[in-house]
Amino acid sequence: RGRVTEARYGMTETTIGFMGHSVSGEYPLGSIGSVFPSVSVKIVDIQTGEALGPFETGEICCRTPMVMKGYINNPRATQEMIDVDGWLHTGDVGYYDSCYRFFLVDRIKDLIKCKGLQVAPLELETLLLSHPKILDCGVIGVPNERYGEVPMAFIVQTRGENLSEQEVEKFIADQVAPYKQLRGGVRFVSQIPRNPSGKVLRRFLRDEVKKLKSNL
After folding, report:
1. For 3, 65, 153, 204, which has the most beta carbons within 10 A of its beta carbon?
2. Is the pTM of this model over 0.85?
3. pLDDT in tens, 113-140
4. Backbone dihedral angles phi then psi of residue 110, each to the nearest 5 degrees
5. Residue 194 belongs to a domain with what CATH number?
6. Residue that is last in its domain, among 62, 77, 107
7. What are the residues whose beta carbons fall under 8 Å from the beta carbon of 112, sequence distance 6 or more?
């Protein structure tokens, strides 16, 4: 009673969070909040760097006095993170709505590139977790000769349930565009590797795929 839960978004390079909100009815589910005072934020096209408008998905960039000066003895990494105009490129993909409330989509490095189009694993994971027979899941991109990369899902079933690969594939296919379908297949596992903050450790899932291929 009387306690308020707050959401914050930031990174080590920004010293503290640069946007956030108190969890209340003012912010839709999934929003990471609004920009704090003395902070500028923009969403840019991942390929061109062009600033984007509401509901357009791109990289989250911020500019604030709180941004680090740079990485010690690593000017190259600093230049890759902070551009000549002082914008810090977070490496996160997101968008904002008409009320300038921001939403996080995924990490750029985790995006699946299918026939020149980008698929966010988090989007597919959110859909999969809405299935009553799925307890947990993780999605990665796997190489494909025709498409470049295609999504593959690792699934932890709810105890006592019996789910088939075809059911999972159809569940996703009925809700997404063709290029987002699970053309990489479905694999059932006992658990999904996650770090202490709950993020899926996709590198371990990729290692699992490599092991599967080496055993063929």
Report:
1. 153
2. no
3. 998 888 999 999 999 999 999 999 999 9
4. -95, -10
5. 3.30.300.30
6. 107
7. 118, 119, 120, 121, 139, 140, 141, 149, 150, 151
